[in-house]
Amino acid sequence: KKRGNIYLSGAGPSAWHEEYPVAKGKRQSPVDINTNKTKFDPKLAADPLTIRFSDSCCQSIVNTGISFQVTSNGAGCELSGGPLDSTYQFAQFHAHWGAYLKTTGSEHTVDGVSYPAELHLVHWNTKYDDFKDAVDKPDGLAVIAVFFKRGKEHPGFGKIQDLFSKIPAKGAKVNIDFEFNPGLLMPPDSENYWTYLGSLTTPPLYESVTWIVMKEPLEVSVEQIAILRTLLWETPNGVSQMYNNFRPPVPLRDRVIRASFG
Ligand SMILES: NS(=O)(=O)c1ccc(C(=O)NCc2cccc(O)c2)cc1
Ligand SMILES: [Zn+2]
Predict the structure, then answer these.
(1) What's the Cα-to-Cα distance from 39 to each of 81, 106, 114, 188, 261, rounded to whole Å?
(2) What is the distance in A from the centroid of ligand 1 to the CA of 63?
């Protein structure tokens, strides 16, 4: 059996704890954001999140076997302020999405409601030497999550999707030889966000992520949501379209999700 597909081999996410006991840990992700239980923190508004991206930081795109991943050298792309006590450098972005005609697909949910897809912009704490050193530290990573909703087309994201046909299989990688500023993928309003301490949402599920979940979704067209599923992955029954590459929400446990807005 192809064990390669972590979502489709065995019982999927509900079985991850067998190999990764931390899956049942105290600060796992994703979670449901119950907006009646979030807490406005004026400190987050007092020290605004500073998100800097550049035109020249995206170098290549790879099929990781569970998503696409646009990899960056981080040049000029840094995150600080808000909940963060140091500067984090941009490493990569990828996404998670659902199936045809389904509403599920995002990893985080808001009052129990899923979005059709969720983008993750991954940053690592520059107090550590590099990403690999930061990835398993409690303050090692900061990930910006942006929900996708169906609406008008997003030409910028379309430029990335135009490359999907060049990365048909796990491990396939092509250079990005045009300028692409990941800032294009931020929603119009990126001041309003929720933040909490969590984890990687795929094995090894390290509890190393400060999550910054944008309240406002980004609009992409219904066709663009469908194009996500033209990426391919290995399944126990052979190569097929990639979809449902999301972990469902896990218990919040003893955590409070803070809001940057009242
Ligand atoms: N979906 S997520 O944003 O939580 C996420 C971000 C990054 C990663 C990741 O980098 N995985 C590969 C990895 C894991 C451990 C050590 C490494 O050097 C790389 C996984 C999940
Ligand atoms: Zn992710």
Answers:
(1) 18, 22, 21, 23, 9
(2) 14
